[in-house]
UniProtKB/TrEMBL annotation:
Keywords: Iron. SMART domains: FeoA. InterPro entries: Fe-transptr_FeoA-like, FeoA, FeoA_core_dom, Transcriptional_repressor_C. It comes from Aminicella lysinilytica. This is Ferrous iron transport protein A. Residues 1-73 form the Ferrous iron transporter FeoA-like domain. The keyword Iron applies. GO terms for molecular function: transition metal ion binding. The keyword Transport does not apply.
Length: 75
């Protein structure tokens, strides 16, 4: 599933980070790397952006950026 599809309050493990060029590099630099646990904290009223919690900090990213990150949901 894609990170953009993860519901509020759910946890997941990042499997792959897609995208090309600057977008992929930016996501990796922000800490979205494979085998990292993420949790969706908040979703804006119209669904964009989403706030995720990873590596001890909150990060807000656009839904189209989150759509290139593949995750595996965990309990």
């Amino acid at each position: 599933m894609k990170l953009s599809e993860l519901k509020k309050g759910k946890k997941a493990i990042i499997e792959t980070v897609g995208g090309k060029g600057a977008l992929r590099r930016r996501l990796l630099d922000l800490g979205l790397t494979p085998n990292t646990e993420v949790r969706v904290r908040k979703v804006a009223p119209f669904g964009d952006p989403i706030e995720i919690f990873l590596r001890g900090y909150e990060l807000s990213i656009r839904k189209d950026e989150a759509a290139v990150v593949t995750v595996r949901e965990v309990n």
